[in-house]
Amino acid sequence: MASVVRRPRGALWAVAGVVALGFLVALEFAARRYGLPGPLTSQVREMVAAPKSGGLLYAALALTMVVLTWRQRFIAAGAAIGVDIVFALVRWAVDAETTGGHPFGNGALWVILGHAVIAVTRRTGRERVLLLKGVGLGLLLVAGRKTGDTWLLITSKTRPEVLDQYVATADHALGNPSWLVGRVVTATGSIGFNVLDVVYGQLAVAAVVVALYQLRGVAAERRFPSHHLVRTFLVIGLLGPAFYMIFPVVGPLFAYGTGTAHWATVSLWAPEIPSSEHWAVADLWPRTPPPIGPPHPMPFDGITPRNCMPSLHTAWAAAIFIHTRKGPRVLRYAGTFWLIATLAATLGFGYHYGVDLIAGVVFVLTVEAALRTFDRGWDRSGIRLVAHGATVFAALLLSYRFLPLEMAEHPWVAGPLLVLAMASVIHGYVRTTAAWESKAAPTRQPRPHPHPHPQTEPEPEPEPI
């Protein structure tokens, strides 16, 4: 059995913290260059202003509270609600508007920061470290959301041309699934759209529910498990947007449709977004698949995010599915439902092409394999699995960029090859992780025999004469 290399966790946490802080500062400067608020500015502003997502801040508080006792949790939740009531009364008294934000959530952020102060001033040793980890976990969830929003703004400002024609052409190899599912979702009307919209929009909340189950023993054991869903979520959000810069794509709803105007009549929460219809190739989605022809980069507006390749919503939903496999039955069913509904929404809303989803699955399995291999000490099987996933992911992006026309002209060859490439990564991940778990499982010792020595058969008594 391969030995596990123990690493100094404290030093790794310190390095990770410095890298994360440097990354946030760099994003802050990049956003300011385009006249936009960066992630740090947005987070500081939400200490007083109406937060963009109050539910996310309370989800972050829930993650922080995994290190607390039940009594401390009730106190923290009560304090957060009390602070929110005070903020609401002050806004009402001065007639301040929430300007599109939520009227709650500030209290959760203040309580999280208050626990950071308590950790520094009132805790020592392992208890201080544990509480700071809980605070860091909650703040990282919020910072990840802010970082993602900033990334999306940067992609729209720095990538004036998009590669949708390349991806749409390659998608012919899969039979243009976004056009097919888009017609189905359109036929379901307001009910079908809004049900999927809730699932699609509350992906982070579903992840927090799964994470709370995985971290339910932290308060009693006084330590975090070596691997959990929040780690995977954060790494996906950190690495994924880098590929948006390399492969900018806006999605079929925008490149081949009328944009958000398509869903304005059925959506219950339709945002007021300027129309992008005049930037589209034509009004084709979801009725008519685009014709096959040589693709070219196309200019697009400076508002719509280039956030399609790979599909991070697919990656996050797949991560939830993976991490619910060992939970109770209701959690496994919920993970399966969230994955299927998210895939239907990403395609049916016109936000992604089919090839985006394949890239997203390969991406998340590679990230998950890398994190688990890191915990094991980079043994040979883990390195081979990560290398295989990274190679397949790179091959997918290169084929979408340089071979889309060939893929569209030979769909019966290219389509199965795409599916087989994804299936090879799935098979490798399942097979490798199953081997890891079988080696890590404690071996059952044979039960001792009640008689330490072999028992001989008794000699038969002599028959009477």
Automatic annotation (TrEMBL):
InterPro entries, alphabetized: Aur1/Ipt1, DUF5933, IPC_Synthase-Related
Keyword Transmembrane helix attached: yes
Keyword Hydrolase: no
Membrane-topology descriptor: Multi-pass membrane protein
Organism: Streptomyces viridosporus T7A
Location in the cell: Membrane
Keywords, in A-Z order: Membrane, Transmembrane, Transmembrane helix
DUF5933 domain segment(s): 12-154
Domain Inositolphosphotransferase Aur1/Ipt1: 178-366
A Pfam family per the record: DUF5933
Higher taxonomy: Bacteria, Bacillati, Actinomycetota, Actinomycetes, Kitasatosporales
Protein name as catalogued: Inositol phosphorylceramide synthase
Top-level lineage group: Bacteria
Region of interest (Disordered), ranges: 437-465
Annotated transmembrane regions: 12-30, 50-68, 75-94, 100-118, 198-216, 228-247, 330-351, 357-374, 381-400, 412-430
